[in-house]
Amino acid sequence: MNNIVPLIFSFIALRLLAPMIFASDSSDYYVSVSCNATLYPDLCFKSLSKYAASIKTEPKALANTALTLAFETTRLTLSELRKIGGGGESVGECIEVVGDSVYNLARSVRRMEGEETGSGLAAQMSDVETWVSAALTDDDTCMEDFCRRCGARTRAAVREMVFKVARLASIALTFIDRYASG
Ligand SMILES: *[C@@H]1O[C@H](CO)[C@@H](O)[C@H](O)[C@H]1NC(C)=O
């Protein structure tokens, strides 16, 4: 009899825990499969797997989370660039283009918040796709043509930061396109 009690408890515990374990497994799997379809699967999984539980297996949540992350990271990058720039002209251009990128991502995040349907949804997604593409173009421009007079180390640091936000925007765009066409 005594041996059976712990057994029953572990059986009950398993019944209670299993759905949570499997739920988190399947959302990790969903994020992993989705990320593998992007151009940057490693960065994608590294940045999004921690939100797997709230993404579940929902394309809209995936697109929203990736977009919000791109926006937040770009905003932080802008303030980093401002620190590095220190008022000098060399980083100035880059600050301007990344600033445009922040603006475009911010309005994309706001536009995604509406629960639109039918033709409203098509227009909504078309706006978001346009603006995120613009943000991506801004980042690209900045990488090609920035910081000409910066030292090698600053140039490398800026390049790495801008590269990352461009990649996050690209990942977000992949998921937004997929949600829009699904
Ligand atoms: C995604 O790709 C990685 C690396 O190739 C692989 O380890 C992982 O199993 C893939 N994920 C899925 C769910 O197929």
TrEMBL record:
Superkingdom classification of source: Eukaryota
SUPFAM superfamilies: Plant invertase/pectin methylesterase inhibitor
Keywords associated with the record: Signal
A GO molecular-function annotation: enzyme inhibitor activity
Segment forming the signal sequence: 1-23
UniProt xrefs under InterPro entries: Invertase/methylesterase_inhib, Pectinesterase_inhib_dom, PME_Inhibitor
Domain spans labelled Pectinesterase inhibitor: 26-175
Pfam family, one: PMEI
NCBIfam families: PME_inhib (TIGR01614)
Protein name listed in UniProt: Pectinesterase inhibitor domain-containing protein
Organism: Genlisea aurea
